Amino acid sequence: MKKNLSVFVLLLSFFLSTSIFAQKTEEIKVWGNCGMCKKTIETAALKAGAKTASWSEETKMLTVAYKPKKTDAKAIQEAVAASGYDTQDVTAPNEVYSKLHGCCQYDRKPAQEVAKNDIKKECCGMENCDHKMDCCKEEKCEKDKSCCKDGKCEKGKSCCTK
């Protein structure tokens, strides 16, 4: 009986530890100002698949925990940007940002840089895509014309230039 209990405790510990390690935690810089920003930013992160999301007004850091099989930091940042808030890697569209409440409109990157970033800089994760290439249609990579593999451009494909 004692041996069975020990085996049970060992197996239980193993299952609990694997479920804990299956979750990833990251910090993402997100611009915003107030409590309304906090609510919108955290809600967007949760809708994008984060298990937990906490944004700090002071540090402008969003701490998220998520399961990598369900989402990733890029998807979370895209959802936050779609709600009007610039992140460290994704700029919110001007038309969404301009609809934020007055107190939520934060100091953005210089206008020239924001305008440049309004058009996604990526085609399958590549920064050098100009959206006139074969793999892009409406600022998104066409799945049937995939030019990139694992976020890296496959050399020689017509959609990628260096």
Structural account:
It is a single chain. Helix content is 34%, strand content 15%. The chain has 162 residues and is α+β, with helices and mostly antiparallel strands. The chain has two domains: 23-118, Alpha-Beta Plaits; 122-149, no CATH class. It is elongated. Mean pLDDT is 76; it is low at 114-128 and 130-134.
The first-level CATH class name of the largest domain: Alpha Beta
Total helices: the number is 5
Average the pLDDT over all residues and give the rounded result: 76
Based on secondary structure, the structural category is alpha+beta
Largest sheet: 3 strands, antiparallel
Count of individual domains: 2
| Helix content estimate | 25-40%
Oligomer description: single chain
Sum up the overall morphology in one term: elongated
Radius of gyration: 20 Å
CATH architecture of the largest domain: 2-Layer Sandwich
Report strand order across the widest sheet.
Answer: 1-3-2
- Taking the alpha carbons of the first and last residues, their distance comes to 67 Å
